[in-house]
């Protein structure tokens, strides 16, 4: 019995060894795929003539570059015939034409070119900085004096639906006038393009205003029509 068992085991081991040998022989006989190798040609002549980069000369001054600064276009447009100005007070003070009795005034710059070109039937806008309002006036009459100064009369339609009067005199280098709006009567004067505007109710009684109720007729008198009126 023992001999039979031993013989069976030996037969199994022998069969396994023969099977393993056959498998390994088949693997060895399978062909191996060739590996493709690409060869890149090199231009030996070019490599011989290539020069090394020149060393940096640190003794020379470095190249200075100036940053590009975008230039802002000057502000030239007016939303009305006047606008707030940071320069007006200083200009008027230096010219010694700024009244000392002003109160709650706003300093402005006038669009002289537009005002000087106004004609009957045209419109212009005037801004009131104190109330942040802008009113549109229609020019009803323009009277020109002998020296070229213009007295411009207009009507202003207020938010209350009523018509209000305005009158201003425009000269070569000065403006003065009154503008009536629903919020009150405003007085303004300028030296050149720079001036001030204030509510008439805020001015002291001692302030001398120009008489703009009637324009000067054309005469040969070339006196200063912007000078305050005096009696006598």
Could you characterize the architecture of this molecule?
This protein has a domain at 82-202. Residues 69-75 and 224-232 have low confidence and may be disordered. 20% of the residues lie in helices and 28% in strands. It is elongated. It starts with a helix and ends in a 33-residue tail after the last strand. A nine-stranded antiparallel beta sheet has the order 1-2-9-8-7-6-5-4-3. With 232 residues, it is an alpha+beta fold.
The percentage of residues in β strands lies in 25-35%
- Straight-line distance between termini: 165 Å
- The largest beta-sheet arranges its strands as 1-2-9-8-7-6-5-4-3
Shape: elongated
Q: Roughly how many Å is the radius of gyration?
A: 49 Å
Topology, number of strands: 9
Low-pLDDT ranges:
69-75, 224-232
- What class do helices, strands and sheet pairing give? alpha+beta
Topology as H/E string? Answer: HHEHEHEEEEEEE
* Mean pLDDT over the full residue set: 75
Main beta sheet:
9 strands, antiparallel
Helix content: 10-25%
Count helical runs.
Answer: 4
